[in-house]
Amino acid sequence: MRTLILLTLLAALMVTAFCYESHESMESHEFVNPFINRRNANDFMRPQPRRNLIVQERIRERNKTPQERQREICEDYNPCERYAMRHGYSAAYKRYFGQGAS
Length: 102
Prior knowledge:
Elements: H1 2-19, H2 23-26, H3 38-41, H4 50-62, H5 66-76, H6 78-87, H7 89-97
C-alpha cells in the first residue's frame, strides 16, 4: 500500500513537472496563426506605378558600367561576339577595339 501511494505521488509530481507552462513556452503562443494568406505574403512584390518604372529604366540606361558598354559594342560586331563566346567579352573587346575604355 505504501508503494502504491509513493507511485501515485511520484506520478502526480511528474505530471506537474512535465506539464508546467513556463514563460518561454508561452512565447510560441503569441501569434494565433503563424501563417499569412498569399495576398499579404506577396505585398512587397506588387508592381510599382508605370510612370515610376519608366523613370527607373531611363536612369538605368544612363548609368551603365564600362563593362556593359564594352559588351554592347562587342555584341554589335559579329567577329568580336564570336571571339567573346570562346575567350570572354573583355578579351574580345581588347582584341578588336584596343585598350581604350569607352
